[in-house]
Amino acid sequence: MAASETKERIAEALASLLNHNTFDKITVREIADEAEVHRKTFYYYFADKYELLSFVYEHFIVEAPRHEQPLTLTLENWRPAVIQLLERIADHSKIFLNAYPYDDGVWRQSMNEFVASRLSILLHAMPEYRYLKEDVIDTSAEFIAAGSLGIINKWADGSFTASPRTVLDQITTANRLMNGILDRWKLS
């Protein structure tokens, strides 16, 4: 079996276990047994179950699944791309809800890095921001990502009752309100 297949099988094992149990109750032994690999094999690929969970978040929720065509983010298609991401989160809600409250910040870190890096690309593409230094754009992207993640986490805490489109509208409205506050602050 290829190394990438073994790594994926271990990740699939954790995802499967998360459908029935919370992350804090799952052991490395259970993950290895579910994946039908030795514990040493688990540790060959992952330092601990938190590193594995980061991989699961990335490959099952954040990134487009293998059967989907990855979307290149542009100023023209960012809304459908964000809705697609929110739909993947909702589709994996059982995994998410059984892991997120117990993951010691793994979700927040993984998602913040993912969203901030995509936002940075978009901000760099906007002509009105080309004069800004790269670190200013990157810091702005991190700020927006943190706020967006707060809204996504609130959505999760509410058991995903709102639609992905509603969540995106909440994120864009919050950013518009913040821009309005900052514009008024500059004028005073």
Describe this structure in words.
By secondary structure, this protein is an all-alpha fold. It contains nine helices and no strands. The chain has helices spanning 3-18, 28-35, 39-45, 49-62, 78-91, 93-99, 106-125, 134-157, 164-187. The protein is elongated. The mean pLDDT is 88.
Keyphrases for this structure?
elongated; 188 residues; 9 helices; mainly alpha; single chain
How would you concisely characterize the structure shown here?
The chain has 9 helices and no strands. The protein is mainly alpha-helical and 188 residues long.
Topology at a glance:
Blueprint: H1 3-18, H2 28-35, H3 39-45, H4 49-62, H5 78-91, H6 93-99, H7 106-125, H8 134-157, H9 164-187
